[in-house]
Amino acid sequence: AQSVSQHNHHVILSEAASLELGCNYSYGGTVNLFWYVQYPGQHLQLLLKYFSGDPLVKGIKGFEAEFIKSKFSFNLRKPSVQWSDTAEYFCAVSYSSASKIIFGSGTRLSIRP
Amino acid sequence: EPEVTQTPSHQVTQMGQEVILRCVPISNHLYFYWYRQILGQKVEFLVSFYNNEISEKSEIFDDQFSVERPDGSNFTLKIRSTKLEDSAMYFCASSEQGGTNTGELFFGEGSRLTVL
């Protein structure tokens, strides 16, 4: 079945720490990959996306993600987090065989000032 | 910057009542979606819509749910007879690309539905 897994339910970091959030998707052919962020009380916003080309994609606010096809992974990274990065982060995938985006269960990121 | 707008932002209803949630997608987008997020849980796909018909729907989207594009701008989600478990945040989204190459979805701010 088409699915997305996010292994970290809640991550707590101090400011300036490095961040890596894991995301794996099930095999299903050609995929488009996304990371969305949901700040407290707000709607989902796109952080970055991968459709094709360079597997290392850069997004807004200093975030980046690397698509590793052999591992079915699309982990999100940021070298130095800020308190304002406190939010819920969702990995998402669209498969070429479907007309929708499937979301992972989300990772809540809490940053200690 | 163009955005997806949703109304109402919050609706409280009694179990068994009909509810209509409204969305105005971005004007040049052709693909429309409804998702829901029960408090503290994941964002779940409900339905995708293109060319005035449903492209795909999830198991959640049973006979109690329906979608419509009554005019050139609005995209509505109707729940015929609400249940307690329908309480959730409902997000509308639209995209330029869809179908077998679903691209970036632009989300509205959501409509919180509370069923009592």
Explain how this protein is built.
The complex is a heterodimer of chains A (113) and B (116). Chain A has 113 residues and is mainly β. Chain A has no helices and twelve strands. Chain A has strands spanning 4-5, 10-14, 19-21, 24-25, 31-38, 45-50, 56-58, 64-68, 73-78, 87-95, 102-103, 107-112. By secondary structure, chain B is mainly beta. Chain B has strands at 5-7, 10-13, 19-24, 31-37, 43-50, 53-57, 65-68, 75-79, 88-95, 106-107, 111-115. In chain B, a hairpin with a 6-residue loop joins strand 7 and strand 8. Classes of the chains: A mainly beta (113), B mainly beta (116). Chain A binds chain B through residues 32, 34, 36, 42-46, 49, 51, 90, 94, 96-106, and chain B through 31, 33, 35, 41-45, 48, 50, 55-56, 91, 98-110.
What topology does this entry show?
The complex is a heterodimer of chains A (113) and B (116).
Chain A: E1 4-5, E2 10-14, E3 19-21, E4 24-25, E5 31-38, E6 45-50, E7 56-58, E8 64-68, E9 73-78, E10 87-95, E11 102-103, E12 107-112
Parallel strand pairs in A: 2-12
Antiparallel strand pairs in A: 1-4, 3-9, 5-6, 5-10, 7-8, 8-9, 10-11, 10-12
Chain B: E1 5-7, E2 10-13, E3 19-24, E4 31-37, E5 43-50, E6 53-57, E7 65-68, E8 75-79, E9 88-95, E10 106-107, E11 111-115
Parallel strand pairs in B: 2-11
Antiparallel strand pairs in B: 1-3, 3-8, 4-5, 4-9, 5-6, 7-8, 9-10, 9-11
Number of strands of chain A: 12
| Oligomeric state as shown | heterodimer
Quick one: overall form of chain A?
A: globular
- Using the CA coordinates, give the radius of gyration of chain B: 13 Å
Terminal residue distance of chain B = 37 Å
Distance between the termini of chain A: 40 Å
Write down the Rg of chain A.
13 Å
| Percent of sequence in beta strands of chain B | over 45%
Can you give the mean pLDDT of chain A?
A: 92
Q: Sheet with the most strands of chain B? A: 7 strands, mixed
Proportion of helical residues of chain A: under 10%
- Helix and strand sequence of chain B: EEEEEEEEEEE
Order of helices and strands of chain A: EEEEEEEEEEEE
- Spans of chain B with pLDDT under 50 lasting ≥5 residues? none
Give the class of chain B from helix and strand content and strand pairing. Answer: mainly beta
